[in-house]
Amino acid sequence: MRAPSSELPIEFDGVTVAAGGVTILDNIALTLAPGAPTVLIGPNGSGKSTLLRVAMGLLAPSRGRITWGGLENVPPHKRAIVFQRPAMLRRSAAANVSFALRAAGVPRAEHARRTGELLRLVGLEALADRAARRLSGGEQQRLALARALARDPAVLFLDEPTASLDPVATKAVEDIIRAVSERNIKVVMATHDFGEARRLAGEVVMLHRGRIVETGAVASFFDAPQTPEARTFLAGELLI
Amino acid sequence: MASDVSALQLVLSGDPALFAIVRLSLYVSLAAVVLAALIGIPLGAWIALTNFRGRQGVIVLLNALMGLPPVVVGLAVYLALSRSGPLGSFGLLFTPGAMIVAQTVLVAPIIAALTRQTIEDLWIEYRDELTAMNLGPFGRVAALIWDARFSLVTALLAGFGRAAAEVGAIIIVGGNIEGFTRTMTTAIALETSKGDLPLAVGLGLVLIGIVIAVNALAWTARRAGERLAG
Amino acid sequence: MNMLTRRVLIAAAALVFASPAFAQDKSIVVASTTSTQDSGLFGHILPMFKAKTGIDVKVVAQGTGQALDTGRRGDADVVFVHARPAEEKFVSEGFGVKRYPVMYNDFVLIGPKSDPAGIKGSKDIVAALSAIKAKGSDFISRGDKSGTHQAELNLWKVAGVDIAKDKGPWYKEIGQGMGAALNTASASNAYVLADRGTWLSFKNRGDLVIAVEGDKRLFNQYGVMLVSPEKHASVKKDLGQQFIDWLVSSEGQKAIADYKINGEQLFYPNASDSGA
Question: Does B83 contact C73 at a Cβ distance shorter than 8 Å?
């Protein structure tokens, strides 16, 4: 296994993912470089989650290639992901985090200290001993963030991290994402909440039917969309 | 423990050999469950996580083996452990060790099949997370077994129930030797054949009581553990 | 093999081999019949033998056929059964060293109080069996190739009945031990041939009583043999021979004669009768 000096930038070169005769991602060309968060938007089924999985290395492209820091097949040492519905290990909140630390190869002596830090970062230190599966949806989402950050990632993928959360919980999660981004961790996030995209994004990538229809800085994308698809979508109309 | 024994002995109007029989029964069944778990849990977890040709067939076979006829297993183990058999030099036939071997053969498929089901369900839930954590196969299996531990207790209990209630295999390979390989179930069979039905029924009640007690203990432990770990 | 695997394997082996009461080094395995065990004879004589020699005798109670097979496979050190022709064959085939007559007991024909065949009190087993067949009264056969079963088949032959051909729905082969046969007869009020020892210690009699006893043809000779150490090196020939020698000694013979249930002697020692 070759380890690149950095797993960034992540470059998609003609990446296509097809399964059972359905094309989920179609000839994607995209570069994810260090910097402000990249937000993927687009209707349900547009391929956002699949793009994140390919970028994470969980899914191999059917055609095309993807490189991390210029290399192919790089194991995710410096990448982490929070799924839309993160699975909670049947352990305490703290044990969920220390499990991730162990998986990331962090020496055991540092587990207690790092677990404490991470739980504090996501505001769960008071719930450290609570069974993870007994936490609320927002708490589980924050615990999943702590678990992902335990990997000390250079890039963090988030798949609709605030879907189905109430505004208070959403704000808590967004605050963490902002804090993460300020630590120079590249955030790549899928959402279909425009407000969230505006609040967090540096750059926006819009997907439709597995294709990238438009990319741009957040301000220009929302204020002056270039493509009819983006205009329809942003106008709140059904994009078919 | 002593007060339990005297209580039991009272129930059976003071059979002095009873305690030894109960102890041997528990030892044989628990040892068989431990050995079967050492085989069955890793095997079940491996089948749950691995794709290979004929996997479906193996799963069907494993589920079918849960119903292995004890007499057939007893006979096979008898032939294997007999002095004239391939493993005869160990001199295990007509010893508690032979009974443990036979019951391990009976219980291992139960534990493996139930483990396979449990771990596979959990794997569907955990797959993305564990893969994203870049966990190797050993780490995955360890994490899944640990997190499924309370469900796996049920598999172990099913195995223990089978072992504790079983007579067909151990009477063949153990020989039902008084004071040496006589267990609760073989003693019940013997007392029935001697026409001493009240003693057989009494032994049966003690056996059922023990099985219930072990299940209650495991259940309590499971509930307490689940409350802590979710 | 890494350390962990090795430790687990050692622990697993310890579970199997270090079972409780496993460390009885001075012991022999005797394959014998359900009749000797169920009658309680071993419970009476083995403690005396153990007190004298320190040898533990582990009795595996089986049918005579199975007990001989256990010896043939080398899984017992001594075979103690009751079917003389089969025993002689065992020795002549080289599986047994030498056959010693030990004792005899007798068979009794057990039947329901109502006595549907009208044979109660008879001393003629052959006439009784003929009557059972003629009336079609229910009869339970062991059907398990045991010594008792072989004796029963022999008696039918003497009575001029070809039971394989003549048996009807009244003749039920259960393929089980003496106790199970008595339980079945008790539950269905049928006739059954039993050894006296098992009958005397049998508790679930229901309406069963002795119908026929005392016929010389009902005597049942027991023999004992050491399994050939030449066929099976694992045979504990010294300990096994010590047991046989004790059984046929005056001390052992007296112990056998002394065993009684309700004041009734079950087994009659006759080791000195070389023709038995």
Answer: yes
Residues C33 and C76 in one domain: yes
Q: Sort out which chain B residues have CB atoms less than 8 A from C198's CB and list them.
A: 194
Q: Are residues C96 and C174 in the same domain?
A: no
- The separation between the first and the last C-alpha atoms of chain B, rounded to the nearest angstrom, is 33
Mean pLDDT of chain A: 91
Give me the average pLDDT of each 10-residue run along chain C (276 residues).
72 70 74 86 94 94 91 96 92 95 94 94 94 94 88 93 90 90 94 91 91 92 95 93 96 95 90 84
Split into its structural domains, chain C has a count of: 2
- Tell me the CATH number for domain A1-78+154-240: 3.40.50.300
Q: Do at least 3 CB pairs under 8 Å connect A with C?
A: no
List of chain B residues whose C-beta atoms are within 8 Å of the C-beta of residue C36:
none
Q: According to the 3-state scheme, what is the secondary structure of C136-162?
A: CCCEEECCCCCHHHHHHHHHHHHCCCC
Instruction: List per-block mean pLDDT (blocks of 10 residues) for chain B, which spans 230 residues.
Output: 40 66 92 96 93 93 92 94 90 93 96 95 94 90 91 91 92 90 90 82 88 88 75
Which CATH code fits B23-183?
1.10.3720.10
Q: Tell me how far apart the alpha carbons of residues A198 and B205 are, in angstroms, rounded to a whole number.
A: 72
Pairing of strands A203-208, A38-41: parallel
- Which chains have 3+ CB pairs within 8 A of C? B
Kindly list the residues from chain C whose CB atom is less than 8 angstroms away from the CB atom of residue B20: 21
For range A184-209, the mean pLDDT: 91
Domain boundaries, chain A: 1-78+154-240, 88-152
Q: Which residues contact B113 (CB under 8 A, 6 or more apart)?
A: B44, B59, B62, B63, B65, B66
| Nearest residue, CB atoms, A81 vs list B132, B139, B229 | B132
Q: Are residues C87 and C155 in the same domain?
A: no
Q: Which domain holds residue C171?
A: 106-218
C71 to chain B: closest CA residue:
B83
Cα separations (Å) of A36 from A13, A39, A184, C7? 22, 10, 8, 53
Query: Where exactly are the structural domains of chain B?
Result: 23-183
What residue in C sits closest to B23 (Cα-Cα)? C20
% of chain A with per-residue pLDDT over 70: 98
The chain C residue lying nearest B96, using CA atoms, is: C19
CB contact (8 A) between residue A80 and residue B132: yes
CATH number of the domain enclosing C225:
3.40.190.10
